[in-house]
Amino acid sequence: MAARPVPRIMQQGKLAPFYYLAPALIIMLFFIVYPMFNTIQLSFLNRNGTAPAGTTCVEGRPCWGAFENYRYALTAEFNTSSVKVFWDSFWLSSYGNTIKWIIFMVAGTVILGLLFAKLVDGIKNEALAKSILFMPMAISFVGAGVIWKFVYSFGTQQVQVGLLNAMVTALGGKPISFLTAPVLNTYALIVVGIWIWTGFCMTILSSSLKSVPDEIIEAARVDGANEWNVFWKITLPIIMPTVIVVITTMVINVLKQFDIVYVMTGGNYNTDVIANRMYTEMYLNFNTGRGTAVAVVLVLAIIPFIYLNIRRFIAQEEMR
Amino acid sequence: MNRQKINAFFARLPKNLVILLMVLIWVLPTFGLLITSLRPLQAIQSSGWWTALNKTAGSQEYLRNCASCHGTEGNLIVSADLTNPILIKQFNRSVLLLASLKSEYNGQLHMETQKIPNAQAAADIVVHLNAISGVQKQPQFTLSNYIDALVGYRGTRTYTEDCAAGTASTDLHCNLSDLLNSRGMGRAFVNSLLVTIPATFLPILLAALAGYAFAWLDFKGRMLLFAILVGLQVVPLQMTMVPISRVYAQMGLNGTFLGVWLFHTGFGMPYAIYLMRNFLGTLPRDLFESAYLDGASHWTAFYRLAIPLALPAIASLGIFQFLWVWNDLLVALVFLGSTTPVVTYQIANMVSSLGAGWHLLTAAAFLSMLLPMLVFFSLQRYFVRGMLAGAVKG
After folding, report:
1. Thinking of the domain A94-271, which architecture would CATH place it in?
2. In CATH, what number does B185-388 get?
3. Residue from B13, B217, B225, B381 whose CB has the most chain A CBs within 10 Å, to mutate
4. What was the ipTM of the complex prediction?
5. Whole-angstrom distance, CA of residue B33 vs CA of residue B368
6. For the segment B286-334, what is each residue's pLDDT rounded down to a tens digit?
7. Distance from CA of B345 to the nearest CA of A (A)
8. Alpha-carbon distance A148 to nearest alpha carbon in chain B (angstroms)
9. Which of A142, A159, B77, B249 has most Cβ atoms within 10 angstroms of its Cβ?
């Protein structure tokens, strides 16, 4: 990779750069680099980091020796008595749920974001409409969690004060306990995630839509292409690199998503995700080994995206 | 002419309907929260926020179901005078009232041949009965939820009512000092400010220095180091918390402001440096060259030239870091916990310990959203700009 040369006249001393860098580098070394290695190390030790993980094995139970914490992290939630039962338990585990989150939340935010960006492009109140969609980005996930817990509110007495259940009962249905009914509840949480993050995708995609040259679009229209074809065959391919950046960013965000689940269900009723499970193992069950093992699994899932990020950065630098 | 307009209107209709629907979905939940936080406690429990404006719901239901026997004023049956507060206090919830409506009095069904009203109607009637008997004259909207949330009062009546009656719990003094009660949002708000302000300034300062070095100083491994930095941006918090809480435990930094400031600074660094370097790198090179020719040192060029020119980037970064720290829950949970509750922690705590205390939760949530919304709507431009410059963080 080519570093942009610095003007000769500005090269003053060999040490000078490090005075500027030192505070940032030291604090990052202590708060990011060292803990990453230490976390890996701790994941091979027992619950308080005093002995190897293999010592926690129980006679007659499956044991992976030094990888005992990983055995727990990877298999504890599954019921392996038969393939069918395993399959069902997988999709209710934190791993299955995280996959559901990734698929539906990324698809939801990107599609809705793109749709909205395209629809409001050029309308009279574009800026207002966009800031409405974007507003949830400014408030906390905790705040958004409360907002939606109220929307999903399930009245134990017969009055429904939650908007959704009031609509359900008004249409003659039975009120639904959105946050405790298994399978449905994870999707109810994903809706909250989509509500928060769509504005983010919309803003980035909108600015990329606006950068598509008008001449190309006009030329296609003159050639007789309808709006649908212009979008699919011209606009979308041009903004595809941005769409991919948004998708990778969203996958990373979803993998780290902790607050929504923690606030709305606490990971109960089969809504757990990897990020929340790490917190549960570490700070509720006080098991350092297992907590760090879950964290390492999370990072392993993120590593491909770290690689993509760096590659994209290098490509950008070469274009400058 | 007119025909064309109508045609254009219908051509745009599907598009406008989709926009309208999406805007509604994005506005209604927050709007409902705001309205609910302003309604009196009993009203929140007995009806949805969308009914907040129909004043007459209660009296209409009363007229439909009860007035034929009890009279429009409620005092037609002497043995069951509905304007008598002592009587009404026995039926001041919809379940109690419904039970009474279903039971027999003097060998006769209470409602005789009439249909028993549904739960919503019963709740509305209760509100009406409370009003005419003088048990509880409720204002349409009130700020008492905000007062309760600020002082963290978790009684069945409002803080002001209980203080006036002298029945507030013993750890409250019913004066301004209650604003600092450790269960309240007032205290949490102050704590959040104390966490957020230094945790916003410190990273900006360090990132400006480092970003300047990456943009305008030459050293070995500059690109490699920066590429690593780009990779570090997406390391999840979860990967670093455990070792740091262990180190903090030894150093006595758990539960201290200093610990959180440093953690947020360390964690915000990769993104902050990335943003600063990219912005500083786009400044015109001639500017720096001529400054050096005039004999300026690096340091002068940094704080006389780079910093003033980088103010827009600093603004974006500041907003980002501010919102990130203010809205963070995980770091606050792990490193501060209940000793120094911040707003997000306090709300998460209310959710798990209160269940459905919506009057407190809605007010508390809205209090926590005030400052971010203010920052967002006044400085949206910088926020969006910072995001477009590559927001992959946390």
Report:
1. Orthogonal Bundle (1.10)
2. 1.10.3720.10
3. B217
4. 0.88
5. 12
6. 888 888 888 888 888 888 888 998 888 898 899 889 999 999 999 999 9
7. 9
8. 7
9. A142
